[in-house]
Amino acid sequence: MNKLPIIFVGILVAFTSAWLGLVVYTYIALGHLQTVPDEDTGGNFPPSLSGLGVAGQRVYAANGCIYCHSQQVRPAPLSTDIEKGLGPRRTVPRDYLRFQPVFLGTMRTGPDLTNIGLRQTEANWLHRHLYDARSVTEWSIEPSHRFLYKLQQIQGQPSEDAVQGLTGPHAPPSGFEVVPTDDAKALVAYLLSLKRNYPLPEAPLPPVKK
Amino acid sequence: MKPSSLLSSIHPATEPDTLAFLERAEIDASTRGPVLLFFGSAVFWLLFGSVLGLLAAWKMTHPGLLDSLGFLTFGRIRPAHLNSVIYGWASQAGIGTGIWLMARLSRVSLMHTKLLVSAAIFWNLGVLVGVLGILAGDSRSIEWLEFPGYATPILFVAYACIGVWAVIIFRFRKPGHIYVSQWYLLAAFLWFPWMYATANILLVWQPIQGSAQGAVNWWFAHNILGLWFTPIGLASAYYLIPKVIGRPIHSYYLSILGFWTLALFSNWSGMHHLIGGPFPAWMISTSVVASVMMFIPVVTVAINYHMTMSGHFEALKWSPTLRFTVFGALAYTVVSLQGISMAIPSVNTLTHFTDYTIGHAHLGLYGFFSMMMFGAIYYIVPRLVGWEWPSATMIRWHFWLVAIGILLMVGSLTVGGILQGVALYDPTVSFRSSLDFATPFRWLRGISGVLLLAGHLVFASLFVLMLLKAGPRREGPALLATPAENPSQTTAA
Amino acid sequence: MTAGLILILGGLVFLSGSALAAFCWATKRGQFRNLREAALTIFDRDEPPGTPTDRFPPRK
Q1: pLDDT at position B10 over 60
Q2: What pLDDT shows up at residue B45?
Q3: Which of B168, B236, B276, B283 ranks highest by number of CB atoms within 10 Å?
């Protein structure tokens, strides 16, 4: 029984020293993460988020999108994320510098959204999907977010913001249109900004194959 | 310890075992108010959380269900369910059990009861405000910490009362051996505020930059499992299993080994939730190693419980507490070994992001922790109120409904999750495949939710009937059936 | 990131350190000396070892 304290001290010291060595060394190496300048445009990588996009993060958080969607591209050979087209490269800590909070997510009930801004460039498509996913993708189980939209009567001219091409059981009856609220516009702006196709020193883009 | 007025009024020639009974009954009675308050609140949140959980489950197989209102959207119901069951049901059941166990093991009557009653009120207020806040659209979408910023300080105040109380009662305990359950409870009660405060500061009040948030998030969420719920569940089992069958723990040495290795390794393993994610490789690797080291405390506990129960398994027929507790103990071993396997990167490739993880989470929080809490509540409440549970039949219904329910849930999500994971990994199939594989198993999970809710309704009814004195009166020291009454019962040294 | 790393790793060291400190305290106080007796602390004269203490409630 007297030997037990020695065993425990031994385990703790061995474990902690390995940790300290790794921590100290990597802390020096990692340092403080900053953005990287983009020579072509004079901006920075990762690019900053528009005001509407920042507001969109709050809508994303409020409606729990993380419970079905992840936002991280894992490397090969651990995963086939890149092969399946989730993005041109894996995501690294610096990719998330501009986001608050960081929606890494832990579920893929729905597709990963790291690069949704690359796959869908049209705001209208995203509005249609948010309003009634099954009218766009019939096998989708995404819940309808039509509470983020307003159904209103068309006053003279249809509104510029109105969502086009809506079909399905929640499509507006004739004489009516569906207009996104500010929350919906912010959310879509945020989603459109989700693209990590810029290179970083620690995560270069793979060479383009012809 | 102040001599109780009851004890001092007893004739000095009273039998020592009667004295022991009275002393113990006095201690039990002193915990009645706070413990029943925590248990009663916990049962309410169990029902509320089960309804939310059932709704979330059915929304996954019927996405059009109740989808017109924002506060009922899946993305809000799901975190409302999680927080209701974690902070509303599980934590309060754990605190109630902890209070009773601490009083018994310290062998002192409860002091500062008002502190605990305030704690219970504030805790429930915090959970209510938090859950309603989530449904209203103020969720932070930080897993296990979704409560909006205006709810968390309330919980923290409640907790401060409990933490202070735990230190006081430990300080004024009767001298002697500190039983292993008390180690576990003290550890849990002292570490929880540290974890909760750190996570809230770094993620909510002064958020740190970038993907490091994920690291803090999962350090916290895993520690809630390993250093809050696990110790409380194990403390309960380490006391109740030997107490019910009347036989001391098989190897007290192993129980100590298990405690210290849990304390050392558990808090390093949180990053296994983020394998492949945007983090330095050393952080992930160290968590994987720590997760594998968890093998030691898990196997230690499993051996200990099994050897203690060995030869006494027929006790499961006549003790409700033992049924639930042993079920929980078996689930603890399985879920922990499963968790260790999931931390290995090659396994994680298939299980990450799938329903497999959800099955695992429910096996842990329900199959292990909630079942342990049911066992504890069944043992503790009669000793607080002085009468028996009103119906053995209802207890049996409760047990079988939830046992089958949780096995169905975990089984279906595990199989469905693996198939989902294989499809997610396969570069030749579309995303839709993963959905098609998972769907039939989500249907089964939806059915399991109905069984669980039914079981909880039975339990809640029993609890209410208990409070309304509907049960047979408990007699004095010989409150157990004699061997003649319960022929299947054996007494063993 | 910096403050976060310090706090998390500090927290980890604190938690493990407190575990170790408590362990040393326990050893000094002789908590590990008589384990057989320690296992018996949950029993007393009224509920001695060998007596089961639970059952299903009797039928009315």
Answers
A1: no
A2: 98
A3: B236
| pLDDT, tens digit, 9 for 90 and up, residues C20-57 | 777 777 777 766 667 777 788 888 777 888 888 888 88
Q: How many CB atoms lie within 10 A of CB A118?
A: 16
Collect all residues with Cβ–Cβ distance below 8 Å to A126 and sequence separation of at least 6.
A120, A188, A191, A192
Task: Give backbone dihedrals phi and psi of A178, rounded to 5 degrees, phi first.
Answer: -110, 125
- For chains A and B, CB pairs below 8 A equal 160
- Is C13 in Cβ contact with A16 (below 8 Å)? yes
Tokens of A105: 């997510």
What average pLDDT does range B242-263 have in this prediction?
A: 86
Taking the CA atoms of chain A, what radius of gyration do you get in angstroms? 23
Residue pLDDT, tens place only, A192-210: 999 888 888 888 888 765 4
Q: Map out the domains of chain A with their CATH numbers.
A: 37-192 (1.10.760.10)
Least confident of B5-19, B171-185, B434-448: B5-19
Question: What pLDDT is recorded for position A189?
Answer: 95
pLDDT, mean over chain B: 87
Q: How far apart are CA B242 and CA A174, in angstroms?
A: 73
- Please check the confidence at residue B149 and state whether its pLDDT lies above 70: yes
**CA-based R_g, chain B, Å:** 23
Whether pLDDT at B18 is above 70: yes
Quick one: which of B340, B234, B330 has its CA closest to B296? B340
- B491 and C50 within 8 Å at the Cβ level: the answer is yes
CA dist., res. A71 & res. A55, Å (int): 18
The encoded tokens of residue B296 equal 């030691």
Which structure tokens are listed for B382?
A: 């009669």
Crossing angle for the helix pair B295-309 and B230-245, nearest 10 degrees? 20
Q: Which of C1, C19, C57 sits opposite B390 (nearest CB)?
A: C57
Separation between Cα atoms, residue B121 and residue B131, nearest integer Å: 15
Residue ranges of domains in chain C: 2-39
* Rg, chain C, Cα only: 22
Q: Tell me which residue of C20, B297, B255 sits closest to A6, measured CA to CA.
A: C20
Q: With CB atoms and an 8 Å threshold, state whether A32 touches C1.
A: yes
The stretch A51-79 carries a mean pLDDT of 91
Residues facing residue A44 across a β-bridge: A37
Which helix (DSSP H) or strand (DSSP E) does residue B415 occupy? helix B392-425
Q: Which chain C residue shows the shortest CA-CA distance from A23?
A: C9
The model's pTM: 0.89
3-state secondary structure chain A: CCHHHHHHHHHHHHHHHHHHHHHHHHHHHHCCCCCEECCCCCCEECCCCCHHHHHHHHHHHHCCHHHCCCCCCCCCCCCCCCCCCCCCCCCCHHHHCCCCCCCCCCECCCCCCCCHHHHCCCHHHHHHHHHCHHHHCCCCCCCCCHHHEEEEECCCCCCCCCCCCCCCCCCCCCCEEEEECHHHHHHHHHHHCCCCCCCECCECCCCCCC
* Main-chain phi, psi angles of A44, to 5 degrees: -130, 155
ipTM for the predicted complex = 0.86
Location of structure tokens 């809640």: B460
Token pair recorded at residue C37: 């007796």
Cβ–Cβ of B208/C36 closer than 8 Å?
no
In whole angstroms, give the CA distance from residue B136 to residue B148. 10
B70 contacts A97? CB cut-off 8 A: no
What tens digit of pLDDT does each residue of B175-200 get?
777 888 988 898 888 778 878 887 88
Report how far residue B149's alpha carbon sits from residue B224's, in angstroms, rounded to the nearest whole number: 19
Contacts of B278 in chain A (CB under 8 A): 72, 90-93, 95-96, 104
Angle, vertex CA C57, rays to CA B381 and CA B103, nearest 5: 25
CA A156 remoteness from chain centre: 38
